[in-house]
């Protein structure tokens, strides 16, 4: 049964149970023309009592979460792949414009200075061009290399070696550049930046070498949501314009229609569209920057129709001030040539003050608990916070990470749209069905929360089963690491020492992962604890554990390695039960040593035998025991981590201090699996350093 059929059936059943009063209200001839902002709307709402404030608040939370999930990708405008220029040696040179140097061969080779930090731009010096250079050695790895520049301020000359490869002479262009380059290295890429912008000159945000096709595809894919959703905004704009034509006295619809149209232009002129239309940059930039004034003006008109009288008058004053202040800054920055960038920079200060006032107004409305303004206030807060954040980033008062104005814009549009549509749609929905579904979902959520709490408790209990992550004495140091695939896992390690100062070290890996593996791991803990009187006999330890586990683990076998270290004689005794071998890093050895003995996994066969290996330890030896979760780590491009990669990392970092060595291994595992995103099994290891 489809959702529509189920909904229709439930509504038909509910309709037969409606009271005479409810039928009368629902069948009113004019209910489709109720003004959402009118007093009659509020009275009708109180009369019908379809929804409560608490339900509205729950819906608002749902809207926020939905918008975050859908549009979070829209806030991140990054072209993936390639080699970042910020990792190369970057140098700059100031040249006075009167010298009119337009070729890098005329630049003094000894006058270059290195950029500090992750920068490819500087605060401008009056009447000076900024030259930037960086090596192009990495271009040879690409078939059709290109230089991707997310933002360059403003007029550019780009040379590869002494060959001019790109010229751009337009102002106020803040969209990406994709510059084709030659595969053969020419030594350096030189870029001359000339700009009248008073806050910054140079390159900003993403700058990298990559394949030309990857740059185009990446630019399109990173802006696909904005390109796709722009027609949605235009559609909503025309829809509300049509609603306005039906009842022209409801002016909120025309203001909202125009506001949506303005927002659609902002979203439509994104990085990909701006790059594709760069030959019309003068027109595109003019439309974009003027729209930054028009959009706040339309927002003020819209809010003036919604908020109480006092704020309505304040918004009218702000409307006039916006026009006057923007016009003043536009005239101020029109000499020697019109600069929308400088105008936007100056106007941003006023926008922040204005946003602060609107924010206070919204907070006041929330405090007053004005029922019909909840959605409007939510959208307004989203726009103000996101807009203020991006303005502060542009003014370099906040560090750049993501642009969130698009996120705030869509939250605002969704909230405002729902405000206008909400109560027209609300009267044709079954509230009882909604309440029943909500109760069912809440019960399911409570059940899931209870399970989650139990898993968190189990995780803490399992941590208590593991030995301390760092331990040691005058003879040795031990560090360990564990990261379960799920909340709890099947990896277990333990280390104990006897009254003579000798050490027994155990690492186990239960087949599978999750709750069942964690239970068997706990059984392994109990079995190992029972062997404490004879930890100096490795084979006896495993025979005892195998007897205690046999027939009780439901076929879930356990691989394990056990080491006994006699600290007086420096003799290591070890046994293995189907577990990966362990490694020894020895200062006197030119290679990485690995050791293993034969032995069946624990708990499978009742009569398993375990052979004991011996090894003389030396001062400075480092022992590395691990579970198979490490070689099974995955990377989407490099494949499985593998033991060879592990051995290489261990060997290359063998001279690092012990704790630093420990941190390096964790970092390598974490980065290879993309923050454990591609972890397929529980990951554990133990490292021992002999003093």
From TrEMBL:
Q: Which Pfam families match?
A: SpoIIE (PF07228)
- The UniProt transmembrane annotation reads 228-246, 258-277, 289-307, 314-331, 347-366, 373-392, 404-425
SUPFAM superfamilies named in the record: PP2C-like
Q: Which domain of life is it from?
A: Bacteria
**Assigned keywords, A-Z:** Hydrolase, Membrane, Transmembrane, Transmembrane helix
* Gene Ontology MF terms in the entry: phosphatase activity
Say if the entry is tagged with keyword Metal-binding.
no
- Coiled-coil segments: none
Q: Residue ranges of the PPM-type phosphatase domain?
A: 473-690
Q: Which residues form the signal peptide?
A: none
What's the protein name?
Serine/threonine-protein phosphatase
Q: Which organism is it from?
A: Leptospira ognonensis
